[in-house]
Each structure stands twice: as structure tokens, then as C-alpha cells.
Amino acid sequence: xxxxxxxxxxxxxxxxxxxxxxxxxxxxxxxxxxxxxxxxxxxxxxxxxxxxxxxxxxxxxxxxxxxxxxxxxxxxxxxxxxxxxxxxxxxxxxxxxxxxxxxxxxxxxxxxxxxxxxxxxxxxxxxxxxxxxxxxxxxxxxxxxxxxxxxxxxxxxxxxxxxxxxxxxxxxxxxxxxxxxxxxxxxxxxxxxxxxxxxxxxxxxxxxxxxxxxxxxxxxxxxxxxxxxxxxxxxxxxxxxxxxxxxxxxxxxxxxxxxxxxxxxxxxxxxxxxxxxxxxxxxxxxxxxxxxxxxxxxxxxxxxxxxxxxxxxxxxxxxxxxxxxxxxxxxxxxxxxxxxxx
Length: 342
Ligand SMILES: O=C(O)CCC(=O)C(=O)O
Ligand SMILES: [Fe+2]
Known about the structure:
Layout (H helix, E strand, L loop, with lengths): L9 E3 L1 H5 L2 H17 L2 E5 L5 H16 L2 H5 L11 E3 L21 E5 L14 H6 L13 H26 L8 H4 L5 E7 L13 E4 L5 E5 L7 E4 L5 E3 L7 E5 L1 H6 L9 E3 L12 E8 L6 E2 L16 E2 H12 L3 H8 L1
Parallel strand pairs: 1-2
Antiparallel strand pairs: 2-10, 3-4, 4-5, 5-12, 6-11, 7-10, 7-12, 8-9, 8-11, 13-14
Helix pairs in contact: 2-6, 3-6
The site of 2-oxoglutaric acid has 10 residues, from strand 11 and strand 12.
């Protein structure tokens, strides 16, 4: 199904969860077609309970409603620790695609990583693991509902990501569990973002979120229909809005999926634009973004069923190597350095 004239299809996952093998393959083929053409899809019938989505949305809103001085209490104590609150303009997404002179993003966000590690598993105690799996920072003193709501939401997203990765495997004519051992110890960040009202015009060239591709396997996004929203860059160079379907999630592929498939699938450029000037007030918009990122040591190299008879376009990398490179570019802003030094 297409959403009235949109380049992004809406795909019902009900049969992928409960159907026969043939029905699962049918849904997988729809996912594959979207992955190949635009790298974005909207999924309904995903099985995530609406109360879990609502609770995470409301707790996040309460968090961003706090006075700036309270939010600052939940900043990370160390620039190398990607946890907790990051203020307006601390990130610069456009610089992750090498755009020189790009302006920092007009948004604030809060990052949560995994919380359910098995201390008996040596994977979680290597030096790399210790760097990645930092303790989360929870705003319990101000928004006690945040931690339980976000943990529930994170768990639901991890389950949905597994289903989507299984569909990706089927779409690529691989065994359904082909990705399983590459994502079973994933290093996903859940980033809750708030794009405030814009009573004043921003600087020329500054956006809510600059153009970029996502860094991981795939992203699951829950956002709101507000003036100034998400746009994707089509293959012929047009920026198109992504439809907001109530209760559905937006999925987009990240760089690792493009590298795995030798660019048969696209990690599509996208951005969040500013509201039209007359609608700057009342345009506040909030997103919950689950950046599904494979196990840190997952090797990302061309999948055997892709690029048959062609040379591989990318040198092999690992999940963490690619993520580290992008995060360093993202945080290369004066405000990031200033607040982290404070
Ligand atoms: O808020 C959105 O709609 C998308 C944000 C985004 O692309 C990102 O955080 O990577
Ligand atoms: Fe993104």
C-alpha cells in the first residue's frame, strides 16, 4: 500500500508475525522492494502495544519540559560517555556526511543504551564493551516515570528490530536467522529528541536536523505530525516528506545495511526541516529514535547473495568502527565541547 502519493510505502506486518512461511516471504518481499527503492518504509500491524508507546512519549515530554538547569543535571560526566542529556546545538548531523561549515542541529536529546547485560558473558566485559555499555543516566529525581517507560519501550523496539532483521534476511534470500548472531548482543542507542518551537528564525542554513544517513543496521522512529518534519532525498534528488501514520513506525535503513548489500539497498539521506515561519510557535516536535546497531564485533562485509559477479564496493568494517567514526563527526561542535568541559 502507498500513502496517498508518497514514495514511502506503508507495510502491514501482521502476517510477518502470525502468518505462514509464504505470507512471511510476501511481507519480506515488500520490505525488500522498499529497501531497494527508497530505504524507508512505514510499518503498521507491528504488535507494539499503544500504551507502551504513549507512556514513553509522555515521560519524554515531561523530561524536556523541565527547566534547562534541571536537564543539565543529567548531562554525561565525560564526553566519551554517550549517555543522558545533550542540549540544543550540541550535535551536528550534517557534518557526519562531510558537509563543511554545516550548522549544528536545532534540537536537544537524551540518550539511553542497554541496561540488561549479562555479566557472566565475556562479550560484555572486554575493554570495548566497557567503553560502550556505560551505566545509563536516569532522571529519577525529576521524572520517575521516564526509566520504566523507556525500558519497556526499548524492549519492544528490540523485539521489533529482530522481526525486521528477519524480514530483511528473507528479502535477501538468506536463511531467516542469518542476522541473528550479528544482532543478539546489539549496542543500540535509543535517542529521544525534542525539536523546540521556533519563535525566532534560525540562522541561515540551520535545520532541526541536518541532512545525514543513519549509521547502523536500521532505525525505528516514532514521531509526531507537526509543521517542520522529516524529509527523504529521492533517487532523482527531490526532498519528499515522510508520511506520519498514527500508530505506525517509520523504518529506515542505515549505512551498515547498504554496506552489507553492496548498495543494493539504500541508506537514504534524510533531514528534519524547520516549520514555515508563520507556524514557528506551536511546532514543537518530539521523536523516539531506536538506532538498531549490530553487536560491536559484527563484521560488516558484502553478503554472499549481493553483488554476485560484481566487486565489493566497501572494505570490511565492524559495527563499532563505523559508529565511532560517525559519532566523532557528530559531536564536533563548539557547544558539545563547551558543555562537556563545563
Ligand atoms: O526526528 C526525526 O524525524 C528524525 C531524526 C533523525 O533522522 C535522527 O535522529 O537520526
Ligand atoms: Fe536520522
